[in-house]
Amino acid sequence: MNGPMCRHHAARVEAAIASGQAARSALVASWRRSSRLHHLDPAGRTSPMRLTEVELHQARERIAPLLAAAQGAMDRLYQAVGASGCCVLLADGEGVPVDRRGTPADDATFQSWGLWTGALWSEEHEGTNGIGTCVVEQRPLTIDRDQHFFTRNTLLSCTAVPIYDHEAAFAGVLDVSSCRADRTDAFSNLIALAACEAARRIEADLFRRAFAHARIVLTPAADGQCSGLVAVDADDLVIGATRSARVSLGIAPGRPLQPVPAADLLGGDTARDHLAGGQRAVLQRALLRASGNVSAAAKALGVSRATLHRKLKRFELNH
Question: Are 156 and 177 in contact (CB under 8 A)?
Answer without folding.
Answer: yes
